[in-house]
Amino acid sequence: QVQLVESGGGLVQAGGSLRLSCAASGRSFSMYAMGWFRQAPGKEREFVSAITWVAGGSYYADSVKGRFTISRDIPKTTVYLQMNSLKPEDTAVYYCAVARRTLGATAWGTRGSYDHWGQGTQVTVSS
């Protein structure tokens, strides 16, 4: 079983920054990629960003391009999401997820492509 633990959420003013972390653990598991999704109140969970574990290729939703940066620390089995120039519309619960199978170009933003999910961390951006 894979366990994911997110941290780093909080309250920040518009224009500020936060860095989210997600540490993965479990017995003898392999993964193709780790990703971040978010869910605002009353809205569907949406894709934010993802990174391939070995090659380090990254993908972003248009709404966060140029502001968010995803990275990973392989020895620590941890993925990070650096969020800069935060906006009130970034307010949501942020979830990390693991994809264990190879994803095609159109699959990155699909919830069903990910096999394991964390419990989420709240990010609130005040105006």
Describe the structure.
The protein is built from no helices and 11 strands. 0% of the residues lie in helices and 49% in strands. It is an all-beta fold and 127 residues long. Strands 2, 4, 5, 6, 9, 10 and 11 form a 7-stranded mixed sheet that branches. It has strands at 3-7, 10-13, 18-25, 33-39, 46-52, 58-60, 68-73, 78-83, 92-99, 116-117, 121-126. The chain is globular, with a radius of gyration of 14 Å.
Question: How would the blueprint of this fold be written?
Answer:
Blueprint: E1 3-7, E2 10-13, E3 18-25, E4 33-39, E5 46-52, E6 58-60, E7 68-73, E8 78-83, E9 92-99, E10 116-117, E11 121-126
Task: State the gist of this model.
This protein is mainly beta. It has no helices and 11 strands.
Q: Kindly provide the radius of gyration, computed on alpha-carbon positions and rounded to a whole number of angstroms.
A: 14 Å
Order of helices and strands: EEEEEEEEEEE
Helical fraction: under 10%
Relative strand content: over 45%
List unreliable stretches of 5+ residues. none
Molecular shape: globular
Strand tally is 11
Distance between the termini: 40 Å
Compute the number of helices: 0
| Secondary-structure content class | mainly beta
Q: Mean pLDDT score, rounded?
A: 95
